[in-house]
Amino acid sequence: MKEHKNEIDTLTKMGLSDLEARIYILLLQQSPLSGYGVAKILGRSVPNIYNTLSSMSLKGLVMSSIDKTTNIYVPTPIEECLKQYSRKAAAIVDKTREVFGKLDFSENQSAPAIFNMESTEQVLERAIMLIEKAQANISVNADRFPLLLLSAYLSEATKRGVDVLVNTYVDLEIPGCDVVHWKRRKERKQWPVSLLTIAVDGREMVTAFFSFEERVINAIWVNNPYLATTFQHGRSADTVLAFIINMLNSEVTIEELREKTDALTNKHIFSIPHNSMYEMIISESSSEPKEK
User: Is the pTM of this model over 0.85?
Assistant: First the structure.
């Protein structure tokens, strides 16, 4: 049987075992097949194959029929499987939300710190959560893979009155956002990683590096207002600098450059909220000194 690594990886992410994924793909290519036929092609033991086919039948992945005295199997169409999976996943999400919605975790909020993240899905969900919680400003620096996934959420945030500044090499316009396309120098080599940094309201930030296979190399979430505010100012200033360099390489007067730079700076740097940082300063300065 020809290897189908991408297809097998996709099915295992949906909860199938490696063997279930291989059987399902085989049946898509050659069906109907008996358990013995599947075992012969995959080079597995017959009892193991029949046990796995029985499990797959209960999951709705295959259907069986009796041909004379032998059970033969065909795959459930992939679209039907996906609909089953979507309904099941949605039901689990709804039930989890219902159960945990009854609990109060307000006293268990994370203290300001730096937290590591190792899952691509976790990083992207955290970034989406920050975007959806944003009230004033979002500053983003991203390469193609994360930016394409987050662009719709960034555009939606601007409809709530949030100012969004994006710095990217990607030739992509995002409705409502101020996007600065940093012009890559011809002699610069392409990064061996994909970057995402996002800072919100001087309160929280996420920064991550992904491999070209979209796996996390290094990623952190920071909810320390000191660091988040400083980072967002620096990230936004870097984007304004890219804007200025791009303008200098075009036909523009000094007056036009000053006017556009001032507008961008006032909108995305001077307006970054400092409330969270001030609250943290006041809280720490008013706390009792620790005993030595």
Answer: no
